[in-house]
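Subject: Interface between my chains keeps coming out wrong

I've been trying for a while to get a sensible model of this assembly. When I model each chain on its own everything looks fine, but I need the whole thing in one frame so I can look at the contacts. Pasting all components below, labels as-is. Any help appreciated, I'm running out of ideas.
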Amino acid sequence: MNTTENTYRDRFTELEMSLPGFASLPLRHLRQEGMQRFIDNGFPTQRLENWKYTSVKTISQRAYQVHDHGCPGLDPSDLLPYLIAPVGVYRLVFVNGWFSRTLSDLHDFPEGVRVQSMAKVVDATPRTVEPYLENHQPGADQGFTHLNEALWSDGAFVLLSPGIRLDKPLHLLFLTTSSEKLKMTLPRNLIVAGAGSHAWMVESFVTLGHAAHCTNSHSTIILHDQAHVHHLLFLGENHSAQHVGTVETRLMGSSRLDSRLFSFGGERTRQEIHVHLAGEQAQCSLDGLFVGNENQHMDFHTSIHHMHANTRSQQLYKGILDGHAHGVFNGIITVLPHVLHTQSNQLSSNLLLSDTAEIDTKPQLEINSAAVQCSHGATVGSLDPEALFYLQSRGLDASTARSLLIQGFAAELLQRITSIPVQAWIERQFNKGDNHHES
Amino acid sequence: MNILEIKNLHVSVLNKPILRGLDLSLKEGEVHAIMGPNGSGKSTLANILVGRGDYHMTAGAILYHGEDLLVRTPEERARAGIFLAFQNPVEIPGVNNVQLLKEAFNAHRKYGQLPEMDAMSFRTYLQDRTKQLGLSDDWLFRPINVGFSGGEKKRNELLQMLVLEPQLAILDEIDSGLDIDALTDVANGVNALRHHRRSMLLITHYPRLLEQVHPDKVHVLIGGRLVATGGMELAVRLEEQGYGWLSEVAA
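Reply #2:
Try treating it as a single job with all components included. I did that and got this:
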């Protein structure tokens, strides 16, 4: 077996007894199984169809430190640039993969809402999470997930009781402080929305500093009947960061997931979002906006599985690529045999701002049932020269005209965010990136 | 003094000569109409004035306030007071009218070395103008020209003009594709924009608009040259007899 993979196994053996959840036999077993699968399958390579466009050599061939506790004394004011808003938002902060109580703001949760550090929960009350934590099906393309299953450090555990309506957005902030040591952080989140509950959540990934690091994150979201969850994923790490993430979701009857992905950072990003529509009338909408320039590489894989009748899904992913950036969008929609009256729409729309930027976009439909409605499409274009001229003829200089058109391309995704503070924050992040690009 | 002076203008589009020796002078506050059949070069004249790419002057000169116009970029021309109401304004999804008006207005203010107008005053300034054109309150927040009818697009051009207060307005077939009522609305809009410091070039096929706007002069453009100049009586004769009687002059 490859020596890099073995390094992680050795580190696992060394750390195992100190890893969260060791006292629980089922959880201990999950970690061991994850490590075994990681060793069996290794890091994915480009020979795998699902990883065709994305090389992970920058991860597999470098020696990353996992579970580096080196946590500098951060002051709450250090967080300010990364906050959605200073007040009016619940906040859990993780520094280098570990929960920070002092930086978090967990005051005044309504009764029936449990929000805690995963590490703490699996040690104190492992039975709470045991029913929900399970390993992914083993697979050659799942190396990162298996590694996370074995070595995850901490993350958020969120449990909403039935009928609970979270009054403010919940922000899960994952901050890596970059240093000389090449760090890999392995967050793991579990979100369980009880029947009829409603919540707005943001998971954001950022870096303090410019040095390279790697994030390998995994989130599981379970929506019980009629729950409605807004889940926004913000990938805003520095331009030397490697980011691999997976979101697994399971939607029970009449529940609804609004997934919003915004990817602006990272050198190399691979994000997977998997949705199982596992109850009648469950529905999801998956939006994505990715902005890449220079040599950024961003690869998004979504899968939506219509497992029951009358389920609905819609997807809109937009890419804005400049410089030598490379984007990938791959969206799988499956409908099981005998599952009737499903509706699914998928659109991938891309704006290339340079001749050297590149996009690979591919819908993948596996529909085994007749009574379904399904549409999909992909577009790739550049800025409309007529529109640019129109704006210039009104007195706007070329760069302002260009910015306005780029904003216009992104606008529908920015405007569809239903939480006012979250929307204002994302717009700021988007415009910051644009200004940065102009300079 | 002439605000615009065009001398012996020759313009080619993709190496094809379109304008072939056009002369025109426009004084401050004057409204001139340019009429002519399809393909005579009317829109080429509009496009060369605002600096659209692919239009190349091969001979002649265009002076704006006595200075060479063609050395300036499209945005510099706009800030210096030139405005084209497009024949077919482009639709821009995701960018609303107020965003465009704000950026354009501030660019003009900056050029004129005036401070930016504060948000509240600008809002009032805009509302006065939408009201003047009888536009609804949500107009400003609609994406630029997206899903607009022909008449709405023309009125949107007039709104931009009303906000930017140009010194030279070129209206390229502002009357095309309009029914009688919409035409009257647009004509009223044009009349409201008349000002003793503002000159206008009305490019049109039809005298109907001119009957309501009353230009100071009417020119006929055929084969890339002005072949006749007169008053409203010229427009009326064109309506009755067509362009045939002028073809000999153009040949």
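Reply #3:
Confirming on my end. Chain B touches chain A through 29 residues (CB under 8 Å).
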